[in-house]
Records
---
Amino acid sequence: MYMGGLIVKKRNGDTLTKEEIEFMINGYVKGDIPDYQMAAMLMAIYFVGMNDEETVCLTMSMAHSGDMLDLSAIEGIKVAQHSTGGVGDKTSLVLGPMVASLGVPIAKMSGRGLGHTGGTIDKLESINGFHTSLTTEQFIENVNRVKLAIMGQTADIAPADKKLYALRDVTATVDNMSLIASSIMSKKLAAGADAIVLDVKTGSGAFMKKEKDSRLLAKEMVKIGNSAGRRTVAVISDMDQPLGYAVGNAIEVREVIETLNGRGPADLEELCVTLGTHMLLCAGKAATEADAEKMLKETIQSGAVLKKFAEFVSAQGGDSDCIYHPEKLPQASIVKEVTALETGYIKKILCEEIGVVSLLLGGGRRKKEDEIDLSVGIMLRKKVGDFVNKGDSIATIYGNDPEKFKDAYHRMEVAYFYSKTVVEKKKLIKDIIKE
Ligand code: URA
């Protein structure tokens, strides 16, 4: 068996066997297969696809490419949550402390930005001192003590995904059902949670643009999770426009803090309550959806969630004072309003383009080794269904580099589309898949 032969096989439309997939994943993790061959294989998978059986084999090989975490030292039912990625998706940062404040242990493994979407770890790193490089022992200790810990992917847990994730990010091979399902589910299975709640995004800012494809992805992941003995639920949610208003890193953390104070955007709160409801049900902390919803709303209002977030930030070396003084988070030097080119109702926002604008401002990576600028981003002022007069502000751009800023400004101006007639607000939660 050799990698060149496997690339030819997949490129020609054939199915890879379990042994071939294991050979490829083990060889890549060991460094015997170089990035350029794996990049070619990813592109072949992107165009040819993988069947169900190949996807399951890929997921299992990736999950077993490193240690399988044993979380039995953590008391209670551990529930993991994961999003397929979107623009302005700061859900994990709100949901983690919300559910942890109700006593459900959250041991989360998160990633960095991928393609045009931001990553939880990059966002958290805008808090001075915060780090996610915990040892397994520290991770377990933090979850037992604080009820919430987030670690980056180490070389020990699902290392195949860590390497593939970084490679897919820069080789236009993210938006493939099998690659997304195996990436997410390998991490979740290796990280040892008892139950998994997935947020599967659909729309122009998601990797799956069509609802039909998002549904297939949700079903595939639910099937993989349930067959591995982990109760798995997937919520399909809209990503035809950014979630909330903030897109970037520090700017999203500011919106998270507002939300934890009970003043967040309605869509972000609705999604967190829906996902949180299923997490509480899986953890056996609530008997009905209505009970779970009430508990989640009350915990925000009581201030307990904000306190939990501060406790979590301190436990991972971060300056929790930022939470009470968000002005201490990184700030950009150039700030400018983008104004509406027409009068009317906002009909459409090019969601992926908003993610790309944030990336080009420096908020994401163009190459694997790029450092990101945590202070840049976009604050939307208007969303689909809102009315504007020509010249009203539709968004504020935060940047540091005048050249990048000029390009971002132009892209933002043309990312909004207008209608003379009323446009209905979008439904956020499309479906919930349990089997
Ligand atoms: N999130 C992941 O962890 N992997 C993907 O492929 C997409 C989103």
---
Amino acid sequence: MTDQNRPPLALPPFVPHLFSEDKFHDECGVFGICNHAESAAHTVLGLHALQHRGQEAAGVVSCHKEQFHSHKSLGHVADNFNAQPVIESLPGDSAIGHVRYSTAGGAGLRNIQPLFADLASGGFAVAHNGNLTNALTLRQLLVSKGAIFQSTSDSEVIMHLVATSTYLALKDRFIDSLRRIEGAFAIVALSKDSLIGARDPLGVRPLVLGKLSDSSYIFASETCALDIIGAEFIRDVEPGEVVTINGKGISSVKPFPLQKPRSCLFEHVYFSRPDSLTNGTSVYKVRKNIGKELAKESNIKADLVVPVPDSGTPAAIGYAQEANIPFELGIIRNHYVGRTFIEPSDQIRHLGVKLKHNANRGELEGKIVVLVDDSIVRGTTSTKIVDMVRQAGAKEVHLRIASPPTTDPCYYGVDTPRKDKLLASNMTIEEMTKYIGADSLKFISIDGLYRAVCNRNRDKGSPQFCDACFTGEYPTSLTDNTQEDTPAQISFLQEIRKKT
Ligand code: AMP
């Protein structure tokens, strides 16, 4: 049978929302180290430091004399990599690791990274932070050509592209595959002789390069993962850069068409740890600046500035300093429960907020309180916290938010609900104020946020950051999201859900 008279392949229907709801989207942290006798132990330490980037699952792949070893598990790093036998099962002088976040539906062993494949040229492992915006389209194409996918992770597309690339050298195959994907990626990859770190052309998700001894190099999502192992921060992996470390030393290429970088603004607002450096700048300092700008824009006469811990704390400190209002811990956080966002159902999320925070009544009674948080997504946290502060006797509660209204979902790896669940995309600020129950509600302006982060207003023609969650302006094409769900797609979605 020739290709011409072959019946068309029955492709699965296009399902743009399958993975957006099923948590195709991940918030993740990646780590990689080479030329170190204790590579697995260091990777586990690095993942400890990156735990805030993903609490659903963790995995490590190590390489010892061309043999690859792997340990992956659902749950926290501390729960699954705490025993010596686990570390001993990961021998070798190079290793990569991954922590993963997703909510209901997308969890499952087969989606845990690093992904590993035995390719013609040897083993290859990949750990990916970010989200690809053409993964479904590529997946459809690959499946139509016979590829058998083992997970619902967008990152697996990269593996298949590497496996089927027509280039010879593994590094070239990898680069070839990166040139075909769209969206956000900070990737650490491991072959039998090389450790590779790569960042998408816009540099949406972060990736840094560090050094431990004379010869041991590290890639990590954030500098806090270098600190934990005593490594020195060398520099950010640049947007569009692919850095390879092997026996010949360290080399770098920029294989993508040059673009103006647009790293993620939300990393500064919420996602990165405050003790990390993002684009070489202290996240903590930037968050304090955001609080200062917020105070300049929306100050009010008050007795106290109170942070919503922990995410609102640096901004609240900046706000209090700028407004010259006393800063107090009016809400105490219980550190032994996870982030509320992780809880799958609205009901549990409500419970989560109560589990996590308690009002410090003695500080709040009879006071006019400025409450500072980093962001409002669904509005669950703010509603509960404002109520809690009022119940504790505050006279007035004025909510100040250290980011502009979150109006649009992120397609680049920060898990946000669909637009219809985002409070700010459904309500005016006046309506939100009533819904949350605050006496007043103000968000920092987008220009104010830019000034705090980079000392300049937003360049409207060519913004300095990816700020799509606040502006709806996506810096890449959203190839997988151009079609609406049809009834056939929805039923396909339900079928797949049953299986996953
Ligand atoms: P919500 O309760 O849905 O309005 O969520 C807002 C709270 O969740 C804020 O206090 C943030 O600290 C936190 N948050 C915001 N975005 C995210 C995210 N993508 N993942 C996890 N937590 C988040």
